[in-house]
């Protein structure tokens, strides 16, 4: 089977989260999702089902006013398609909570995409359980947090180095100014002494 994309959208076709798994134009996926509400035409009261067109198959699960939509090619195995839909149907509430609405989906969008990637890889379903998906995404999240910490430490060190350099520049500037004043005073003193010496010599 080849899964083209997985999305969560409203019944009016507004896409909240979408993950594309194969290399096809994004506009193609957007067009397929835009056509989905029109294809429902009376089937949206069923618990879950699928719709076929001349080129693709839509599998969907309804969550109140939202739909989980899986788009595959026509050559895919319908049994495997339904299994993919089944596991994804568990993933969405597991990551977004029991009360599913637009806000919950959008707020957990990145986590959902990471979870979708654990279920489908390069268009093909992975043999994973919900527990494994949770473990893998938590590991990814942990690694991401470590990366963020490293980057933040680098930024902090760079700021501290910049501050240290600025202080050093200010210190050098003050020292040069002091040296300039001292040098000027020395010149004035030497000039005064020279003038006095000349005057005394004239007498």
Automatic annotation (TrEMBL):
Q: Which top-rank group of organisms is this from?
A: Eukaryota
Q: Mainly localized where?
A: cytoplasm
Bias kind Basic and acidic residues: ranges: 153-179
List GO terms (cellular component aspect).
COPI vesicle coat; Golgi membrane
The entry's keywords: Cytoplasm, Cytoplasmic vesicle, ER-Golgi transport, Golgi apparatus, Membrane, Protein transport, Transport
Compartment list: Cytoplasm; Cytoplasmic vesicle, COPI-coated vesicle membrane; Golgi apparatus membrane
Task: List all Low complexity biased stretches.
Answer: 180-190
The annotated region (Disordered) lies at 153-203
| Domain AP complex mu/sigma subunit: from-to ranges | 8-125
* Bias (Gly residues): 191-203
Q: Record's InterPro entries? A: AP_mu_sigma_su, Coatomer_dsu, Longin-like_dom_sf
Biological process per Gene Ontology, one example term? protein transport
Q: How does it sit in the membrane?
A: Peripheral membrane protein
Pfam families attached to this UniProt entry? Clat_adaptor_s (PF01217)
Q: Which PANTHER family match?
A: COATOMER SUBUNIT DELTA
Please describe what this protein does.
Answer: The coatomer is a cytosolic protein complex that binds to dilysine motifs and reversibly associates with Golgi non-clathrin-coated vesicles, which further mediate biosynthetic protein transport from the ER, via the Golgi up to the trans Golgi network. Coatomer complex is required for budding from Golgi membranes, and is essential for the retrograde Golgi-to-ER transport of dilysine-tagged proteins.
The record's similarity note reads: Belongs to the adaptor complexes medium subunit family. Delta-COP subfamily.
Q: How does it assemble?
A: Oligomeric complex that consists of at least the alpha, beta, beta', gamma, delta, epsilon and zeta subunits.
- Give the protein name, as stated in the record: Coatomer subunit delta
């Amino acid at each position: 089977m080849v899964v083209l994309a997985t999305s969560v959208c409203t019944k009016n076709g507004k896409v909240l989260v979408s993950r594309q798994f194969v290399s096809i134009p994004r506009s193609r996926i957007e067009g397929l999702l835009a056509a989905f509400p029109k294809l429902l035409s009376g089937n949206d009261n069923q618990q879950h089902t699928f719709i076929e067109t001349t080129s693709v198959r839509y599998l969907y699960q309804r969550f109140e006013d939202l739909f989980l939509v899986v788009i595959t090619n026509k050559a895919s195995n319908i049994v495997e398609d339904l299994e993919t839909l089944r596991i994804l149907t568990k993933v969405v509430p597991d990551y977004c909570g029991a009360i599913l609405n637009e806000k919950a989906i959008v707020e957990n969008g990145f986590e959902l995409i990471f979870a979708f990637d654990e279920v489908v890889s390069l268009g093909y379903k992975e043999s994973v359980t919900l527990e494994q998906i949770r473990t893998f995404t938590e590991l990814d999240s942990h690694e991401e947090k470590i990366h963020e910490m490293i980057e933040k430490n680098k930024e902090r060190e760079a700021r501290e180095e910049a501050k240290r350099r600025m202080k050093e520049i200010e210190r050098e500037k003050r020292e040069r100014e002091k040296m300039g004043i001292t040098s000027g005073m020395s010149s004035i003193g030497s000039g005064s002494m020279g003038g006095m010496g000349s005057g005394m010599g004239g007498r």
